Amino acid sequence: MTAINNISIKNKQSVNLVITLFVWLLYLFFLPYIYASFHIFSILFMLFPGVYLLCLLAQFMHECWHEYLPGIDNKLFYLILSWVIFLEPQIFDIVHPYHHSQVNTYKDIEFHPLGEIKNKPLRIIYNFLEICFGNIFVILVTSFKISRHPTLKHVYSYKKFIVSILMWIIIWGGIGYTSHLILGVSTSQIVISYFLTCWMGSFMVHHCELIEHGNLIVEGDLKERNLQTRNLKPCGIIERFFLFITHNHCLEHSLHHSMSNLYTRPFPQAYVLPEKTVYISFGEYLVILKDMLTGKCVVVNPK
User: Fold this and answer.
1) What does pTM read for this prediction?
2) Domain count of the fold of the chain
3) CA-wise closest residue to 172 among 54, 3, 13
4) For residue 65, what are the domain limits?
5) 79 Cβ contact list (under 8 Å, min separation 6)
6) Is residue 88 pLDDT above 50, yes or no?
7) Which residues contact 99 (CB under 8 A, 6 or more apart)?
8) How far apart are CA 250 and CA 207, in angstroms?
9) 264 versus 118: which is more confidently predicted?
């Protein structure tokens, strides 16, 4: 019965993707009006449903890259989802294979685009910007790194980048302009509300990733490095709220690395995790952030 239920849940994910995409477009249409009407209190609307939807779309984008979703063109929806959350599809497509093969090492250019930063003051500054601005900062640095990488710069296509710019204009500009015409919002209200949503989403998604991999360098083979990937323990109100907003992404993330051929996220506790699986609380995560802001990074040797 469990296997049948899992198949049913998996088949529903493609429908959930389309519904989430439609609701997100509606959110972008009404967001500037909510911001203009409620000002600072619109932050609550940006958090939910805004960040909640953005995190789910980011999950679906990642899952389309892995081609997990049945019954749809995963490659097409990967592009669409990237554009609707204002990402350049090529960046993730280029660096994500490194995240799986070089996880928890400085060779993971998705997570450590500059590799090991040996200068401590510079490392602290980098960590501070990463913590404050999230994926917005990391993706900008990654884009810069790719443009100067001896191999990857030849993989990156500026023609595809122009296509992405056009799609951003059509999607974000089109919805914003429609909101302006129908709801009477100003350009500044559109830009500010969209930027705040993107920053809050970027912040939340990246802190989810930092819980899993932040300040974590492991010496060992791929199996050992996968096993050291952290998971957030649902032990308190903050942890449960964070898992709710990020759709359980860091609940069993080490499972995704050790079994990346399987679609595991929608099925929490469906698989038995290894005995040495690493779980942390939000309090323990704050200690990790403190170490990052003081330039500390302990190399883990599981042997």
Assistant:
1) 0.95
2) 1
3) 54
4) 2-300
5) 89
6) yes
7) 108, 110, 111
8) 10
9) 118
